[in-house]
Amino acid sequence: MAHVMEDERIWDDRDAVTKALDGDTDRLGLDENSPKTNVEDSEEFGGLYCTSEGFSEALRSVASSPLWNFIGFSLPISSLFSLESSSLKSSDMHYVESEVKRADATEVSPQPEETYVAQFESEYISSSVPLYQEYWMNSLKKDLHRAQHNGLSELVTSMRLPGLKTPPALSPTAVLSPPGLQTKAYALWQELPQVKSLLNSLSAHEIQLQEAMFELIVSEASYQKSLIVALNVFQCSAELKQILSRVQHHVLFSNLKDVCRISEQFLQDMESHLGQHVVMSQVGDIVLNHQQGFQKVYVPYITNMMYQEALITQLLQGNKKFALILKKLEKGPQCQRQTLKSFLILPFQRITRMTLLLENILKRSKGVCSNVRNLTEAIEVVRKIVEECDRSVQQMKRTELLVCLDKLVDFGNVKSIPLITRGRHLIQEGTLKHLIVGGSHKVSIVSRKDVYIHLFNDLLLLSVKSGHRFVVQDHALFPDNVRVEEIKTTILGLAPESFLLCLTKNHSRSSTALILAAHTRLEKETWMKVFSSK
């Protein structure tokens, strides 16, 4: 049995963000070959159900789509958090590498860590319950199958109210089996020994409600099983511990052990309620009781995923020992042919799936039971946790963009200003033509040169691009000191894509104006709209 020490010092990504915001940016070095930043939030998320730009919607979409490998394509999680779809963000890895170097200087020899042993053993869920990956994938396949017959609108509905499936007609009382668990012991609430005597006194709708609640328990048990495998096979692997630095090991597994503990406590409370009240009613109350625990573990874990995926990519590409050890561990019987990546994505899948399960319980409770308490509040609580994950990831991504850009910007002779500031984020960037009208009163000569625009929510930078760097020519506070105007392009003999950009107070506290030209009229309209926004 492998043994490694549990790292009690949790590396908090948001602490690093605070340091970066306070000016400690040298830790996140970036060379001149780093990829440029792009328009914020302009990336499109891949996947089966993606229809929204927001990360909260993306979470729901990705939770319902196969992230790693399914039906012929692969979507790495880094595409959710970085502006390069699948490439390794240098700002991500310089952050990790700087922490690694700092930790390696004082690193001590790894000490044994005991494998994770659950403090609670399920009374109702058989050990044959599948890994959560199987449960989740079977649910997805059933959603896809239903969509093929009922159309996309039904699929979108199923994402919110996934429903439960009707089992074979051989069992007249068997209704709404939890997806993916039909063949497992006690997959159905009505199969519990203490329930069978009650079935004749319950309506079909009441049984459906209990099955929807029981799915929350069964799926949590499946989730708990997968988390324990992830901890004992991968995180507690002495071989991995030997080839990874202390910080690399934590970035890879983050606070997964804390996630597992919270899941265990939640499952214990759910099963305790079932033991006391075989006809359940208080699942909403139990979720609310675990609100703080969920928030405490899921937000930092999901925030860390951008670094987690970047580190895995780097290790697989540059560390043969890591790749070989990982392949051997993944072939172990406990993993059931599941990859490390499929285990690391579990908390992301679970917190988003929980909303769907609770919504289904709420749906089943209407007109059947009036004492299913606090369900609506519980659903809202889980949604807010997902929204906080959204905000945390977006803040981390925005800070990474600022750190990346800060290494590429050269203020030269222009008065420099701190680029990394709390609350600042990039709105749009790109190259426009700066039109300079000269010549005599009879003959006008228009010269053109490229100017690169970085428009933040509170600042405008005008630069000349030199290689991979940006030499700032002027800057102004936005939107207070920036405005745009249409110009009479025909009279001036200018292209119709031209417009006037006015800086009422620039870096030298004077006013100036530039005639800029976009490549197309649509691009012109886009820039004018952005410049006019408040």
UniProtKB/TrEMBL annotation:
Basic and acidic residues composition-biased segments: 23-34
GO biological process: intracellular signal transduction
Any one GO molecular-function label of the UniProt entry: guanyl-nucleotide exchange factor activity
Domain (DH) ranges: 208-392
Annotated spans, Disordered: 23-42
Highest taxon of source: Eukaryota
One GO CC term on file: nucleus
Name of the protein described by the UniProt record: Rho guanine nucleotide exchange factor 5-like
